Amino acid sequence: MGIETFIEPLQYDFMVRALITAILSGVMLSVLGSFTINKNMGFMADAMAHATLPIIAVGVFFGFSISELGAPAAVIIALLLGFIIKNTNIGEDTSIGIIFSSFFALGFVLISVLDVSINLEDLLFGQILAVSSVDVAVIFTLFLIVLSILFIFFKQILFYSFDPIGAEVRNLNVTFLNYLFLIILSLSIVGSLQTVGIVLVLSMLLIPAGAAKLVSKTFTSSIRFSALFGGVSSVSGLYFSYYFNLPSGPTMSLVASGIFVLSFIFKKIKVKPKLTSP
After folding, report:
1. CATH of 3-267, one of 1.10.10.10, 3.40.225.10, 1.10.3470.10, 3.40.50.1000
2. CA-based nearest residue to 75, from 109, 102, 51, 103
3. What is the mean pLDDT of residues 34-61?
């Protein structure tokens, strides 16, 4: 395997756009995945991805692209989820489950009623090879926004994610931090839908972060490893899909799963007790 193997796909403009998008999405999702795992918000992240469907259906009906709908859809979903969870007493999981199923069902109904031309397979599993220059610009903008906000409020979000009660005692605005994290999480999810799709976005959010947690001693190092694993999974998955004619989104997810398995094995070997002679 020579350098030509890595250069050949880059002679095509669509592969260059796909590669840029894959790196941006993979790193952005994976970094937030560390916080998501720490806050046990995996189910909420899945609900956010599925809840985008009705907004996308209405937006496409009025002539907007999925990329153009990304930011407003993310903010609406984040605020709605946060409001419902905070103002109901039926439990967080129940609230999320209701939103998840209701919005997803509503999305399919709207697609049928409005007769919008949406390729459901691409929406569910992603179509990174079809990204345009506008899509790349949108995901790059979201990447900068999400990571800038996370960098500015890193200490507060970190404190809140580990100890929400302690953060409130320290007079941190926990409501603001909660909504802020929901918004940047939604931005990263919605911005990555064309990369891996609604169904697989959760895998790229959680699997690299889970693998990083296995091989890291501190939360900060787990964020670094998570970003690395997410980027490697995205790029490797894209190259595998190119050379073996595989669907890009699922292949990225499988590569991330392979990294998780290797991390698990590495952890088991590392902590294996040494046998001592009697």
Report:
1. 1.10.3470.10
2. 51
3. 82
